[in-house]
Amino acid sequence: MISCEDLGLTPDRKGKVREIFDLGDELLLVATDRISAFDVVMDQAVPGRGALLTQMTLAWYDHFGSRLKNHLVHADSSRLPAPFAEHADRLEGRIMLAHKADRYDIEAVMRAYLAGSGYKDYMASGEVCGHALPEGLQLCQELPSTIFTPATKADEGHDENISESVAAEIIGHDAMVAVREKSLEVYEEARSYARERGIIIADTKFEFGLVGGELTIIDEMLTPDSSRFWDADKYEVGREQDSMDKQILRNYLQTLDWDRKYPAPQLDESVLARVADGYVQIFHRLFPGRAKELGL
User: Are residues 74 and 145 in the same domain?
Assistant: First the structure.
């Protein structure tokens, strides 16, 4: 599904992937099959991608259970009110009805490996978001300890890496500490869980807010869109890794003569297939029982 507008449903807010409907005290989040890279939405979609992202988030919500408060009310499209109910079959698997939250306007980025923008920052300054790191670290090397590197939360345009002190100015010191500590706790457990199943979660980002005055994780969680997933058996320090996530698309686009502005280039169907296959592989390794139930 490319857009809810194809069903005659007009969202109140439209992100790169998700479309949001304001239902009063709650929000309906619909994950489409759109895919973006470098802040540009591609003209082609990855069939089933939105459902995979949603189901992986729900699987992680279930994994952490009551230990991590989340914003979910339910994810059953058959229980939606009109006019969504008549499209329950098209929305199945890709929706979350969520409590509204007072969102913290930062992204909680956790890094355990030196990759992406973190590696670029390190090569330029020896630091990543204010964290001084040892000399001589290589591309994709595991860090001495996991670091919290917050970023601005931009509704449009690029998110920007910021220091903890700047994050504290944005959301308050106590809130920043609470977000940092909960993010570290969740990431380290997820990282260990994935590593036992042959996957390295090199970094990830979370979003938090307050629901009923309690710290609550919102939106997607530990998906191939919000995290770097590497095959542990193929991991090798000093080179770009064989990604299983959206990095597959980014790497392909970097081989093209494209200025990273709209319109997006026409994508080779084999690239879209590799992206879809990577997402399914991750799901199968992390949650095989759930993947079987979903027929993946």
Answer: no
Whole-angstrom Cα distance, residue 118 to residue 124? 10
Please say whether the beta carbons of 29 and 253 come within 8 A: no
Angle made by CA atoms 91, 245, 126, in degrees to the nearest 5: 135
- Between CA 109 and CA 217 the distance in angstroms is 13
- Helix, strand or coil, per DSSP, at residue 247: helix
91, 112: one domain: no
Domain boundary among 47, 76, 99: 99
Calculate ∠ Cα 56-62-67, nearest 5°.
125
The answer to whether the predicted template modeling score (pTM) of the entire model surpasses 0.70 is yes
Query: Tens-digit pLDDT profile for the chain (296 aa)?
Result: 999 999 999 999 999 999 999 999 999 999 999 999 999 999 999 999 999 999 999 999 999 999 999 999 999 999 999 999 999 999 999 999 999 999 999 999 999 999 999 999 999 999 998 899 999 999 999 999 999 999 998 666 578 889 999 999 999 999 999 999 999 999 999 999 999 999 999 999 999 999 999 999 999 999 999 999 999 999 999 999 988 999 999 999 999 999 999 999 999 999 999 999 999 999 999 999 999 998 87
Task: Determine contact, residues 230/242, Cβ cutoff 8 Å.
Answer: yes
Q: Which residues of 147-173 are buried (b: 16+ CB within 10 A; e: fewer)?
A: bbbbbbbeeeeebebbebebbbeebee
Q: Which domain holds residue 243?
A: 102-255
